[in-house]
Amino acid sequence: MINIEAYGTFDTAWCPGCGNHSILECVKLALSELDIAPHQVGFVSGIGQAAKAPQYLNCNMFNGLHGRSLPAAQGARLANPNMVVIAESGDGCNYGEGGNHFLAALRRNMNMTLLAHDNQIYGLTKGQASPTTAKGQVTKTQPFGAPSEPFNPVAVAVTMHTGFVARVFSGDQEHLVNIIKQAINHKGFSLVDILQPCVSFNKVNTFGWYKDRCYRLDESHDPKDWDAAMKKAVEFGDRIPIGVIYKDDKPGFEEGMPSLAAGPLATRELNKTKLAEIIDSFT
Amino acid sequence: MSEMSINILIGGEAGQGLVTIGQLMAKALVRGGHDVLVNQDYMSRIRGGHNFFAIRTGPEPIQCTTEMVDILVALNKETLEIHGSQLTERGIVVADEKIDCRGLNALKVPFNDLASKPLFYNVVALGVLGAAVCNDIAILEGLLQDTFGKKGSEIVASNLEVLRKAYAWVKEQNFDFSCMPPPPENPDKRIMINGNEAIALGALAAGCNFLSFYPMTPSTSVALTLINKGKELGFVAEQAEDEIAAINMALGASWAGARSIVTTSGGGFALMVEGISLAGVTETPVVVILVQRPGPATGLPTRTEQGDLNLALYAGHGEFPRAIFTPGTPEECFYLTHRAFDLAERYQTPMFVLSDQYLADSYRAVEPFDLDKLPEVAKPLLKPENPKEYKRYALSDDCISPRAIPGFSEALVKVDSDEHDEQGHIVEDAPTRVAQNSKRLCKGCGLWAEVVPPGYYGPDEPDVLFLCWGSTLGAALDASEMADLKVAVLHFTQVYPLKDEQFMPFLEAAKEVVCVEGNANGQFARLLRQETGYGVNNFILRFDGRPITARYILAGLKNIL
Ligand SMILES: Cc1ncc(C[n+]2csc(CCOP(=O)(O)OP(=O)(O)O)c2C)c(N)n1
Ligand code: SF4
Ligand SMILES: [Mg+2]
Q1: Which helix (H) or strand (E) holds A192?
Q2: Closest CA to B453 of B483, B425, B408, B495
Q3: Closest chain B residue to A282, measured at CA
Q4: Which residue of B has its CA nearest to A46?
Q5: Which helix (H) or strand (E) holds B476?
Q6: ipTM surpasses cut 0.95
Q7: What atom in ligand 2 is closest to the CA of residue A119?
Q8: How far is residue A110's CA from residue A103's CA, in Å, rounded to a whole number?
Q9: Of A283, B106, B333, B428, which is most buried, counting CB atoms within 10 Å of its CB?
Q10: B149 phi, psi to nearest 5 deg
Q11: Do B205 and A275 touch (CB under 8 A)?
């Protein structure tokens, strides 16, 4: 097994008490328990507090633009099918700035994992409403309350029959590690929406708020039952189910792309004879 | 010299198949040993409207399109109305017998008699046209065979029958049009290719193996060619959800070891701009193919302009090096795109190839590209020397940090959009910022040292020097040969960076320098002034969406002199 120490420890720029600390620890635990070495994994992130997470562990890292982690992650995935690709970013990044990419990624169903730190707020820019902020929640930029309906990423993912859809809570570490491991092992797109308190800017969805509401799904929930999954996906109020909401082992995007079978693009050699024939076909 | 050329213009509605007729005819001419140059003019619609496909052809090299028409194939009445006035003295019209040709010298074709059903009208037009220019029928027979072979022998046979009927019919007509001079005997083998196809082949030849794109005229055929021709080469392509996704996907792929390209036009490229900056700071190679059309915004979606030089030049916030190539011919499209990949990899920064609709769609006869003559394209490292010590942004004397690909050794490859230290970790301290920013910018010196010099064509110390870039090369050359003055042409195939010692003597030796550009502001002239202090005072500019021609330049020159 890969020792968790291989993933290192770094000083972070996060506030004490922030849910990100716990998520980072769980990610390291999950990877080491899965026996994945740091150089085998590629983390792709955007910009935000959550998106800094890959800075704080040993790994290959593409820390790109706000909202654009998913396209970059999918590009990496297409270039190297042997890489364990994990996109990690916040709710603003994934569901706001990158909303179109989120939908497209659900449709593509590539073999990769999205860890979406969902603190229901824009943390790094100091507390504006995010797409998952509750309607009516007052912020400095929404003094009359957030005017729009919140986006439910889990429900959207379930409607699209996304391969693996989970909702988890940063405060339930044992559970979180387990779900991240399942997500990485799933051969298709895995969404892990991680509820996470932002102690500095979200005074509504606090640690206690989540702790009181989140309950683990047990065996009575069958994640392959789409109707049941849909019910759990929209349950977000006094009680919030956490665990694998939906699972579908349909073939991944890669299976429909024969050109990927020849392995990582970095190891390909140009077939000059074929190319000469192609040029000749313009005669 | 194009004096011995004739210009065939096939006009009609979108959906009438005029592009098919045009492509087959042009190819038949190339196979017969003639030179061709195609200008395609089409509207942003799938049916109706007015489109044309013009083939200028002759036994000698053709350099640019022309307004004058020698054979006007009118697939509808409107074509006659629009283009009738462009007919030369010897010009003829080829049209259905039912169209009133108003006394013009016309071959009135009984389409209904020659074609058993409307499906074959195009083959009739092709046959009449082929016979009118004395193209050996065997060539068109072969082409129809190639085109329809997949659909079965019956379909081939009925097409051939119509073709032969059309040829025979023309022979019986008594019309006044002399054939073109014959092509040279045993001409060298040539391929027929347009600018966009040549860009795609140049990319494939450079080992490009990844494309992410969003369709946008007039760039789409680069993507199409890469996808169709790349199939057998293991090429990976994805149609992204938007251009922002396309550029970010290309960068993620490049980081993970792909050789990436993105293809787009102005509006799509505008969306990519933040990603260009990301390529700059992360030092991730990518080649951007920007095929221009007139803006602002949606502009004239299917027409031509050189209006996005400034956009390419300044795209991306912050400061980082880049190079911009501006090919003038399909050959240059091929070789410069190939070169762009090598530079992108060696300097780890974005490279641009700027083309435009005119060149994109302009088929030409060119010598087949010789793959063995191409230099090797640089490669990244799969396994750096001391993987455990590897630093993606290591400072070094030449400012270039070896680029390792993640996943092939224990090296951890960290690239970062934030300012970063040598390892790739986010930092905010001033000295590291200065060191890394300087390292990135200093790569620009290497790029400067390797600039492709502009092409100089014509006599020394000319009365007039046409200064141009990109697709206007042919028109400038043609105009320089047609003018009664001593005229030369200075053509930039790389507009950035500029290396003044390569061209200042030419500018100073000319009596008058005239800048010829397909935009309203003289963007290149402004760049030249900014980079060298040299001010151009004479301009021939065009921004009506149509290609610059030799006649257009000569008319402009009259106004200047
Ligand atoms: C194109 C662009 N727009 C805006 C920003 C500013 N910005 C940085 S992070 C962020 C929001 C972060 O929210 P979220 O993704 O939820 O991450 P969190 O900080 O809450 O973890 C914004 C608006 C940016 N970096 N780039
Ligand atoms: S601002 Fe919020 S999300 Fe950001 S580190 Fe602090 S607590 Fe965490
Ligand atoms: Mg957030």
Answers
A1: strand A189-195
A2: B495
A3: B191
A4: B417
A5: helix B473-482
A6: yes
A7: 3
A8: 13
A9: B333
A10: -50, -40
A11: yes
Cross-chain residue pair B406–A268, CB shorter than 8 Å: no
Return the ∠ at Cα A36 (arms to A33 and A37), rounded to 5°. Answer: 120
**Looking at ligand 1, which atom is closest to the CA of residue A201?**
20
Taking Cα atoms as reference points, which of A50, A38, A65 lies closest to residue A118?
A50
Roughly what angle, to the nearest 10 degrees, separates helices B195-205 and B330-347? 40
CB B402 within 8 A of CB B384: yes
A224: burial class by Cβ within 10 Å (0-12, 13-18, 19+)? Answer: exposed
Q: Which two tokens stand for residue A78?
A: 């297409």
Evaluate if residue B1 carries a pLDDT over 50: no
**Binding-face residues of A in 195-214 toward B, CB within 8 A:** none
Question: Which residues constitute the domain of residue A222?
Answer: 4-280
pLDDT at B184 over 90: no
- Tally of residues, chain B: 561
Ligand 2 pocket, residues with Cβ under 6 angstroms:
A 14-15, 18, 20, 49, 119, 123, 198-201
Structure tokens at A177: 């590690």
Q: What CATH number does residue A187 fall under? A: 3.40.50.970
Tokens representing A154? 């889990």
Distance from CA of B426 to the nearest CA of A (A): 7
**For a pocket test of ligand 1, which of A18, A24, A47 has the largest count of ligand atoms closer than 8 A to its C-beta?**
A47
Q: How are beta strands B48-58 and B35-41 bridged, if at all?
A: antiparallel
Q: Could you tell me how many CB contacts below 8 A there are between chain A and chain B?
A: 202
Six token digits for residue B267: 């509006």
In this structure, are strands A240-247 and A164-169 parallel, antiparallel, or unpaired?
Answer: antiparallel
Kindly report, residue by residue over A80-97, the tens digit of the pLDDT. Answer: 999 999 999 999 999 999
Q: Which of A12, A122, A132, A201 to mutate to test the pocket of ligand 1 (most atoms within 8 A of CB)?
A: A122
Q: What are the structure tokens assigned to B234, written together?
A: 């293991």
Q: How many domains does chain A have?
A: 1
**Residues B301-324: tens digit of each pLDDT:** 999 999 999 999 999 999 999 999
pLDDT band at B16 (very low <50, low <70, confident <90, very high): confident
Q: Which two tokens stand for residue A160?
A: 């699209």
| Residue A143: alpha-carbon gap to chain centroid | 30
**Domains identified in chain B and CATH numbers:** 6-173 (3.40.920.10), 193-369 (3.40.50.970), 387-449 (no CATH), 455-560 (3.40.50.920)
The sign one gets for the Cα dihedral B262, B265, B268, B274 is positive
Interval B52-109: pLDDT, tens: 999 999 999 999 999 999 999 999 999 999 999 999 998 999 999 999 998 889 999 9
Dist CA A124 CA A14 (whole Å): 10
Reported as a single tens digit per residue, the pLDDT across A172-197 is 999 999 999 999 999 999 999 999 99
